[in-house]
Structures are given as C-alpha cells and as structure tokens.
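Proteins fold reproducibly. Next comes a concrete instance:

***
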Amino acid sequence: MIPFHCETVLQTTTDRVWDLLSDFSLYPQWNPLFPKVTGPGTVGDRHELVVHLPGIDPFTVPATLEHKAEGVLTWRSTFLGRPLLVWTFTCRIEPVSPERLKVRLNWEFGGVLAPLFRFALGRPVQEGMEQLNQALGRWGEKGNVRCMRC
C-alpha cells in the first residue's frame, strides 16, 4: 500500500533532532502527533502510544518499537492480527550537510482493512505528520530552544 509521506529540511544537526526523537520522556513537551509514549523504550518491546491526529480525539495504540538507531525510528501496530490491519510509522533523518538535514516521515496501513483506514484517516494522518515536522523545526533548529530539560 502507498504510504503517506511528509518531509522537511532543517538547519540543525542530526544529533540535536535525534535527541528529540529518541527520548520519549520529552514527547509531551514538543510532539503533537505522539504526545505520550509509555514503555521501556527498547527495540522489540511493546509500548502504549497516544496518537493525536488533527480533528480526532487522542487515542492509545499498542505498538512495538521496531527500529531505533542510525537516525531511524519505526513503530508498528497490529489490529486483530496482521491480515486485518497493520500500521507502520517511520521517521528517518538524512544528513544533507553538517548543519542541515532532511526529516522524512512515512505512515503506512496494510492488511484487509487498510483501504478503509487510509480513506478515513488520510487527511488527519497527513496533517499530523506535517505538524510533527513543524514541531521538529521549532524545537530542533538551533536558536529556537536552549534546553529541553530546563
């Protein structure tokens, strides 16, 4: 199935953006798409993701952290087993130069129910990913925030 895709270029370092994406305790402070993640933070483990799509009340999704290294963060969740519905969210950081990077977001639905979810959630998913990229720009670009922990 064709994924939803969103990307942006930021004037910052990969380390700065990766610190935001990989520290789930900071999500309530800056992440509009996933404002809360509960779980151990380790690859392969189940977590509870609060998903806040524009125009839809926040809801909790059980998800497995599939990848968290080398500038790639991937979440996967299944509903009633893989044949019915699986969704995958991936955030990839690609360096463009030492002080510039591209953030690529992909959200994909798979399984028998995928066309229904893609149709019903298409606009909110796309808008949510755009809001996430904007938040990464606000919090990740140098000069915008001195310290997330202050």
Remarks:
- The first strand starts at residue 4 and ends at 10.
